[in-house]
Amino acid sequence: MARTLKEALSNVLSAKELSNLYSSFDTIGDIIVIKVPDALQQRKRLIGQAILENLKPVKVVLMQKGPVSGEFRIRELEHLAGENRTTTIYKEHGCSFLVDVAKAYFSPRLSTERLRIANLVKPNERVLNMFAGVGAFSIIIAKAQPECKVVSIDVNPEAFRFAVQNARINKVAGRVNTILGDAREIIKSSDLGKFTRVLMPLPESASEYLDDAIFAVEPSGGWMHYYTHMHSENEDEATEQVESDLRARLNTNHEINLVKVVREVGPRWFQVVADIHLT
Predict the structure, then answer these.
(1) CA dihedral of residues 104, 107, 113, 116 (deg, nearest 10)
(2) Does 184 reside within a domain?
């Protein structure tokens, strides 16, 4: 059985065609999401069928037709092979997540980062996830640290619906408060109180919410985990630029304890996380 995309397609594509193929793809439960270059568009269904037959236990092959876009960060998908559906169960770090890849953003490539953040949380912390999606960060935190409370916000009604179900599936509904709405409005207008830790996993526009995240942190101090995209020549330059930008914007006592690249998201585009301690 093939272990890589190129191995799965070695019998249906020429060496030149294989060299044009995007080697990376997302496996979410039993769904594979691939990108097909323009030069291979006429062979996309052949590619989909070959993947279905050679990469197990895949049951659905979808093609991403463009970048993640819109307020809800949705990707436009085309069915290529297998069962005609976009929902699946994805498992990570002992948790199970119901996901619809066409209706709510989800990336399996943040698995390591989700566990890293969960392992930082201490007992009795109050955690705010400003952009929760289907609840993966929030639920993994709640499972890893049973003595914490998590408030989980997302503006996408479909993501909210799945997040509520996922909290129940993973038996953390009593400790994860899932809310539908814009994080800025909810933070400013509700009686949620303040938090010891604030997550901002929306790299496309987290910068616009930085002041809101600061407002949500306990006056006595706390942590923010800030995610952004940076266009740079290399990883070192990307992290240096993010740290410089944050120091220029943060108008409260703080320490930037960590700035690192989470993953490369495109040619010279990096997703970067900064762990910020407000003091």
Answers:
(1) 60
(2) yes
Range of the domain at 34: 5-85
Whether the bond into 57 is cis, omega within 30 of 0: yes
- Nearest one of 76, 64, 72 to 33, comparing CA atoms: 64
Interval 94-108 mean pLDDT: 96
pLDDT at 2 over 70: no
Query: 203 phi and psi, to 5 degrees?
Result: -60, -25
* Among the listed residues 124, 171, 176, 122, the one whose alpha carbon sits nearest the alpha carbon of residue 152: 176
Last residue of a domain, one of 60, 85, 110: 85
CA distance 235 to 225: 18
56 and 121 in a single domain? The answer is no
DSSP state of 134: T
Q: What is the pLDDT of residues 24-38, one digit of tens each?
A: 899 999 999 999 999
Check residue 197 and give its pLDDT.
98
127 and 218, same domain (yes or no): yes
Q: How far apart are CA 155 and CA 15, in angstroms?
A: 45
Mean pLDDT to the nearest integer, 184-200: 93
* Dist CA 232 CA 268 (whole Å): 5
- How many structural domains compose the chain? 2
Our CA angle for 180, 183, 189, nearest 5°, is 95
Q: What percent of the chain has pLDDT over 90?
A: 82
Q: Which residues sit opposite 274 in a β-bridge?
A: 226, 259
Q: How far apart are CA 215 and CA 222, in angstroms?
A: 11
